[in-house]
Amino acid sequence: MVLESLTDPVHAERHPLAVFALGAGYGTLAIFLSLWIFEEQSSMVFVFLTASAAIPLLYHTLHFEEKKDLIIQPKGILHDHSAAILFYLMLFLGMAVAFSFWYTAFPADTSSNLFRVQSQTISNLNQHVTGKITQTALLSKIFLNNVKVTIFCILFSFLYGSGAIFILTWNASVIGAAVGNFIRSHMAQFAGAVGLHKVGAYFYVGSLSILRYAIHGVPEILAYIIAALAGGILSTAIVRHDFGTNQFENILLDVSDLVLLSVLVLFIAALLEVFVTPALF
Questions:
Q1: Residues 122-132: pLDDT tens digits?
Q2: Which of 66, 70, 225 is nearest to 156 (CA)?
Q3: Which helix (H) or strand (E) covers residue 6, if one does?
């Protein structure tokens, strides 16, 4: 209840940087609690604790967004829900940055144990895209896999209200492990090549790693967020029995538009991942 009272949907949507700090705080607190109490299972426990801390705020935000569809004349998807989408995105980025930071800051043994499942997931994903494969086939494979995750986001949001936060938090932890590992490996190479340990090197490698995953990662996560918002709004409307009102048609149209927008953004993210990111890195 203490974490739930830190902010409210109206304040959160108006102050995205505060939401970013909140996401980082949730992630940091969850990591230390999981290492302290559930060290052997910490790689999944910290994901659960982070998501659990965010659920009350997300639940009230979904109610807030659903009310907009009922009482406000629609002006367009992005206009009506841009604040909520930014709220979700900043919360996710705050978690991802916190996970990346602690992966890099902790000793290697601690990081390996803390992100054990995430590292195994990354390894499995890399194995699936190795070997001789055309860019078209790779694009299809990545897009279809991301569509599957999007469907999970919609289902989790629809069935559990704010349940998609578990999928988003899990993705934040995987990205945090990938970015942290990239920073560590390249810092070791940098130090070995130039024999220096300047602070500037950390900024350079850190920025490079963030850019590598942000090019396609941010649109991809944005698509998941839009899908989660669509499922959550529909779930809230049904729970509140708004399906018997005249405004429910507006909600259905809004949800459909959000899902279509999510698929479009997802396809753009897949194009960036296949054609742009490999060309730059």
A1: 888 766 555 55
A2: 225
A3: none
